[in-house]
Q: What sequence folds into this?
C-alpha cells in the first residue's frame, strides 16, 4: 500500500455510523438537561441586566475572534426566547427530527451561550463543545433518529426489507479519538506539573472538598487507604490513552506469545468505572456525562458486536423492533 | 455518464478527500497545540506556544474549540470558601443569602461555584467591575435595597492541607481547618447608575 492510499484508507474507509448516532442523541440529552438546570438563572447569566453588562463586558470577553448570537440578543426577554428555542432545537436533535439542521443549530447556539458567559463553564462544557463541533461536520449522524425510522418504514413498506446499516467514513471518528487522546494526555501532563498526584495525595484531598464531594467528607475517611491507589491508577489510565497512537502493525511485531488486548475497549470500560466513580462521589458538573457521550462516538462494529455478545438480548434489537412494528 | 454520476454521489472526489484530510490534520494539530499546559516551562512547550499560537489561536477561538484540561490539576483545588451576602441595617449587619455546599441546590452548585471562584478569586484588578456588579445583582437588586444601602460579601475560607505523603483516615478525622475571613463592601447605587 502506498503512503497516499494508506492515508486515504485511514481517513475514508467505512465504519458503522451507529456510534455517532448514539452520540448525537446523548449529546443533545446532556446539554438539554444541564441547560434546564439554568432555568432560574438565564437572565442572570446571559442578559445585559445580569452579571456581565455592557460596562463590564470588556473584563470578560476576549476582543478578537469572538462570535456569539448574544452580540445581538441582549435583553432578558430576547435571551429567554432564545433559551427556549435552544431547548426546542436540542429536543428535536435528540429525537433525530431534521437531524442535520437541528444539530447545526444546537451546536452553534451552544457555542453562543458559552461565549456569552465563560465564567460558569467547566471541563464538561468544554468537552461538549468539542464533541458538538465534530457532530456538526460529521457526514452521517442520522442513525437512531426519527428521520432514519421514517426511511426504514418506507423501505419496508415498498420492499419488505430494511435498509442496510448506516456507515460513514472514519475521519470524524479519528477526530473524536484524537480529541480524547489530547484530553487525557494533557490532563496527565498537567498533573505531572504539580506534585500531589505523583505523591498519591491528590485524591485524598479532593475527597475532602465539601463543595465537590456529594457526601459528608468525614464519611469518606474509610477510603483514605485506597485513595493513593486510585490516584496512581488514574495516572496510569491517562497514560494508556497515549498508547492508542501506536499503529496496529507495531503490535504485530511483538512476539505472538504475548497476549493482545483491545486497548481502546479496555480503556472505555475502565473509563466507565473511573468517571462513573467520580459521578457517584463528586459533583464535577457535566464532565462525567460528557465523557460518556464521547465514549458512545468511539464505538465501532467490533465494540458493538462485543457488547451484543455480552448482552445477547440487545443483538439486532433495532432491526427486530422495526420489523415487528412495520409488520403491523 | 453513469460512471461519473456514481462516482460523485457515492463518495467525495479526490480533491474533496484531500481537503478533508488537510482539514483533519490541521484541526488535530491546532487542538493539540492549544491544549499544551500554560504552566509548562520546558523549551518544547514555550517554543511551540511562541511559534504556533499566533497561527492556531484565531481558528481555535473562531470555532470555540478552546480547551485546557487542568481539572484538579496541576494540584487539586484546596481552597474551600463559603460566601455570604450581608446588608447593613441600623442594628448592624444581617445575612441576606449564603453560598456554601449545602445552601445551593445540586443543579446550581457547579455553575454557582464557578461563577464565584472565577470572579472573586483573582488577585489582579482585572475583574473589579464584575465583582461590584455581582454584589449589586445578588444583593442590591435581588433584595430591592434602596440606594445607599451598604452591602458586603463575606468570604470565610480555609485551605485543605498540602499533603507530602498519604495519611490515614484517623489523621483526617483529627484535622481541623484554620478559617480566615475577608469582606468586600459596596454601597447600592441608584437604579440608573448600576454598572
A:
Amino acid at each position: 500500500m502506498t503512503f497516499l492510499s494508506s492515508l486515504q484508507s485511514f481517513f475514508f474507509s467505512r465504519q458503522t455510523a451507529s456510534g455517532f448516532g448514539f452520540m448525537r442523541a446523548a449529546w443533545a440529552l446532556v446539554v438539554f438537561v444541564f441547560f434546564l438546570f439554568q432555568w432560574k438563572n438565564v437572565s442572570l447569566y446571559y442578559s445585559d441586566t445580569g452579571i456581565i453588562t455592557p460596562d463590564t463586558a470588556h473584563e470578560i470577553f476576549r476582543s478578537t475572534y469572538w462570535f456569539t448570537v448574544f452580540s445581538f440578543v441582549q435583553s432578558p426577554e430576547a435571551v429567554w426566547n432564545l433559551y427556549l428555542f435552544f431547548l426546542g432545537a436540542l429536543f428535536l436533535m435528540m429525537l433525530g427530527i431534521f437531524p442535520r439542521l437541528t444539530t447545526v443549530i444546537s451546536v452553534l447556539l451552544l457555542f453562543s451561550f458559552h461565549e456569552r458567559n465563560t465564567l460558569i463553564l467547566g471541563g464538561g462544557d468544554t468537552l461538549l463543545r468539542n464533541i458538538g463541533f465534530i457532530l456538526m461536520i460529521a457526514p452521517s449522524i442520522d442513525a437512531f433518529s426519527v428521520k432514519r425510522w421514517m426511511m426504514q418504514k418506507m423501505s419496508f413498506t415498498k420492499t419488505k426489507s430494511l435498509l442496510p446499516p448506516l456507515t460513514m467514513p472514519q475521519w470524524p471518528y479519528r477526530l473524536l479519538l484524537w480529541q480524547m487522546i489530547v484530553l487525557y494526555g494533557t490532563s496527565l501532563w498537567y498533573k505531572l506539573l504539580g506534585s500531589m498526584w505523583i505523591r498519591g495525595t491528590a485524591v485524598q484531598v479532593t475527597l475532602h472538598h465539601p463543595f465537590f464531594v456529594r457526601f459528608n467528607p468525614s464519611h469518606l475517611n474509610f477510603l483514605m487507604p485506597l485513595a493513593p491507589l486510585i490516584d496512581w491508577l488514574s495516572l496510569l489510565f491517562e497514560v494508556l490513552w497515549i498508547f492508542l497512537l501506536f499503529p496496529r502493525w507495531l503490535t504485530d511485531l511483538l512476539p505472538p506469545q504475548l497476549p493482545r488486548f483491545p486497548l481502546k475497549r479496555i480503556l472505555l470500560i475502565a473509563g466507565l468505572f473511573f468517571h462513573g466513580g467520580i459521578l457517584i462521589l463528586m459533583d464535577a458538573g457535566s464532565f462525567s456525562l460528557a465523557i460518556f457521550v464521547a465514549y458512545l462516538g468511539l464505538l465501532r462494529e467490533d465494540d458493538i458486536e462485543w457488547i451484543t455478545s455480552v448482552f445477547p438480548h440487545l443483538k439486532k434489537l433495532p432491526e427486530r423492533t422495526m420489523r415487528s412494528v412495520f409488520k403491523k | 455518464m453513469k460512471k461519473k454520476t456514481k462516482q460523485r454521489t457515492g463518495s467525495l472526489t479526490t480533491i474533496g478527500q484531500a481537503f478533508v484530510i488537510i482539514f483533519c490534520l490541521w484541526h488535530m494539530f491546532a487542538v493539540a497545540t492549544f491544549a499544551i499546559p500554560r504552566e509548562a516551562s520546558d523549551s518544547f512547550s514555550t517554543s511551540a506556544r511562541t511559534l504556533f499560537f499566533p497561527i492556531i489561536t484565531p481558528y481555535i477561538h473562531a470555532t470555540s474549540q478552546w480547551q485546557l484540561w487542568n481539572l484538579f490539576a496541576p494540584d487539586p483545588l484546596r481552597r474551600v470558601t463559603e460566601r455570604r451576602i450581608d446588608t447593613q441595617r441600623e442594628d448592624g449587619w444581617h445575612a441576606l443569602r449564603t453560598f456554601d455546599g449545602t445552601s445551593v441546590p445540586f443543579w446550581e452548585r457547579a455553575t454557582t461555584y464557578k461563577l464565584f471562584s472565577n470572579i472573586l478569586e483573582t488577585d489582579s484588578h482585572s475583574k473589579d467591575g464584575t465583582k461590584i456588579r455581582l454584589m449589586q445583582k445578588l444583593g442590591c437588586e435581588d433584595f430591592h435595597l434602596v440606594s445607599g444601602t451598604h452591602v458586603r460579601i463575606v468570604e470565610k475560607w480555609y485551605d485543605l492541607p498540602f499533603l507530602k505523603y498519604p495519611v490515614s483516615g484517623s489523621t483526617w478525622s483529627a484535622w481541623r481547618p484554620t478559617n480566615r475571613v475577608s469582606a468586600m463592601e459596596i454601597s447600592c447605587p441608584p437604579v440608573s447608575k448600576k454598572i
Remarks:
- The helical segments of chain B are 2-10, 14-34, 43-62, 106-120, 128-141, 169-174.
